[in-house]
Amino acid sequence: MSAPGSADAAALAGAVRRRGTELGLLRVGFAAPHIPPVAHGSDPAPGSSPGFSPDHPVTRFARWIAAGHHGEMGYLARRQRDRADTSRLLSGVRSVVVASEVYFPPGTAPDASPDASPGYAPGYFADDVFAEWSSELADSTRGYFARYARGADYHHRLGKRLEALAAFIGALAPGSRNLVYVDTGPILEKAHAVAAGIGWQGKHSNLVDPTAGNWVALGVILSDVAFPPDAPQPDRCGTCTDCLDVCPTSAFAAPYVLDARRCISYLTIELKGPIPPELRPAIGNRVFGCDDCLAVCPWNRFAQAARDTAYAARTITAGTPLVQLMALTPEGFDAAFRGTPVHRTGRGRLLRNVAVALGNGGDTASVPVLTAALNDPEPLIREHALWALQTIQGGRPPKALA
Question: Considering 43, 55, 85, 183, which one is annotated as catalytic?
Answer without folding.
Answer: 183
